[in-house]
Amino acid sequence: MTRWFQPEGRTMHEILKMSQLFSELEDRSLDEIASASTLKNCDAGEVLFFEGDLVHSFFIVGSGRVKVFKMSPDGKEQILILADTGDSFAEAAMFAGGFYPASAQALEPSEVLVINRERFLGILQRHPNLALNMIARLSELLKKLTQLVEGLSLTNVTTRLARHLLNMIPDGAGDEVTLTLPEKKSVLAAEIGTIPETLSRSLARLSREKVISVNGSTIHVLDRERMQRLVEG
Asked: Is this prediction's pTM over 0.70?
């Protein structure tokens, strides 16, 4: 059940400041956006909107994690975006209007800032610098979705898994790295465009080839160079 509230801890301003869209705005502009917003608390598994629902808002994650996903007619899930604290989502749908092209669901208890579409579009007309921020954000989103489409169409599951693991490695880390998967394997499978059984086979293959070792949700990268070669084809 969704619980609408005014939080005693993190304020709307604090959540807006965490987002790259609004981090550089002055307090007066943040006040305007906050006046067009509502905070809600979502339970794990709660759906914020379904594909085909009328677009009414876009969102910023204040805490927790939200997935934006599409479901195929045969029940296969493809995650398009994993939104963490400070991340926004549904901006493109907000501009396009009409209906949401995908669904959004909280993966864990989450605090989400809901920004009303009609009121925000009015604010946008008065703040050209904010419009530039939105263009930059949409360009970044387009790039990520293009990479997702290329990966799904041109590479196999093991290669997509290797790329995902490489992207998790912090800058400056050495050759051998320990990673902790931040989500259930079913979520990871949906993110790289496969099913849990196929993901398990790819993990087993990389383990057999001594590229990684797996212990529950902990992944030890044993041969980073070989993993990079796999990604590069």
From this structure: no
